[in-house]
Amino acid sequence: MPASQPATPHDPLPDTPAGAPVVTRFAPSPTGYLHIGGARTALFNWLYARGRGGKFLLRIEDTDRARSTPEATEAILKGLSWLGLDWDGEPISQFERADRHAEVARELMANGSAYPCYTGPAEIEAWREAHPNQTFVSPWRDADPATRPDAPYAIRLRAPREGQTVIADAVQGDVTFRNDQLDDMVLLRSDGTPTYMLAVVVDDHDMGVTHVIRGDDHLTNAARQAQVFDAMGWPRPVFAHIPLIHGTDGKKLSKRHGAVGLHEFAAEGYPAAAMRNYLARLGWSHGDDELFDDAQARAWFDLPGIGRAPARLDFRKLEHVSGHHIGAMDDAALLSEIMAFLIETGRPALTPVQVSRLTPALPALKEKAKTLPQLLDQARFALIDRPVEADEKAAKALDPVSKGILAELTAALQNANWTRDDLEAVAGTVAQANGVGLGKIAAPLRAALAGRTATPSVFDMMIALGREETLARLGDVAG
Ligand code: GLU
Fold this sequence. Notes:
This protein is mostly helical. It has three domains: about 150 residues, HUPs (Rossmann fold, 3-Layer(aba) Sandwich); about 120 residues, Glutamyl-trna Synthetase, Domain 2 (Glutamyl-tRNA Synthetase, domain 2, Orthogonal Bundle), CATH 1.10.1160.10; about 90 residues, Orthogonal Bundle (Arc Repressor Mutant, subunit A). The chain is built from 19 helices and twelve strands. Helix 3 packs across helix 5 and helix 12 crosses helix 19. It is elongated. It starts with about 20 loop residues before the first strand and ends with a helix. The chain binds glutamic acid. Glutamic acid (GLU) binds next to loops.
């Protein structure tokens, strides 16, 4: 940006040192499905990297062997793919890197930044009970190395006891932790397994991660992780801790608020493009822009635009965004979206006949639908086969007089050009000849063509169904 121009909220701020390639990562623990909060974290990391020609990496934090499952990993990858977030390279398994983590712990011990601790968990527990609210400092921290016994030990970080650890967070600002309140955390347990806190740092370093964008429930971890980065002499990544998502009532999002799994939103028929737009706005803003496409999101997304207050999940807003994206989608993309949705929700795939009737109806349908089920509900006329069964309300519109008018209309339509203007003109003429308004024949027409009273415009339906099918459906009911 030329120096003469003042910064505006729309200018990307230099959150990256010029020229440094950006590497972000999403690091889910595979213990369940992809939560909406996790999906947003992944999206922010993806947008940040993709908008800067950087890399977006995936690391599966599967060190908790009891809780991690391959099914959960699969569900998370599936969720990310559904959302359209592609990652670079193969997903990395944290568990498989345990040897490397241990190696770093030993390196830290060798350079004096860590030490062996022979105090067992039971002893520490007893100490804590006797010293409530105090930070445990291992007696082995300053013990003479000559006194070390020949026994299993844990490796602890020799963390600074004085001063402060400050996280210069790109969202939260400077966050200060008193070092005397952070204990010498264990890096390697006495059974040789690395701790999570060590693993994260080693992995982020080895993966070349430049920006750690994640939920602010990890802010305290950042202080401990920063100490490990510092001890290794590795540069810290830029930390950006984003506030968690809350429900409409301002409380932490939970099942009680409705859908919380990304798959649930997919099953409710919000297209992925709409979810990307909506989730991007959940906690981040770019001026007053509410509706945008992927290219805009990639160009605009930045860290200064992330707010410090928790964003609230708002289903009404989501519907609005979803309606916009359905309307903006081209017909072919919308059709594939519908097909994927049907398969995903365990419904039969569309037959070629259904596709041929649905396709011409899409321009009208997509203007009104806010979700895919809403669209499919309005598209029902195109998906059903003859004979059309009228529901109770629609059946009432098929009284003998109306049936007579439909018979006349059927005859008059035989020679009509199948254009909207022509169809309207023919219907108008028949209505006039019977001394009724167009509305009076629309109701039985809806019943005959769709078996319902709430349908798209009768002319849109006639055009989508085509001459043959329309006349056949009218012939089925006309008296
Ligand atoms: N595995 C952690 C989680 O799922 C994320 C850790 C991180 O992003 O550093 O919450």
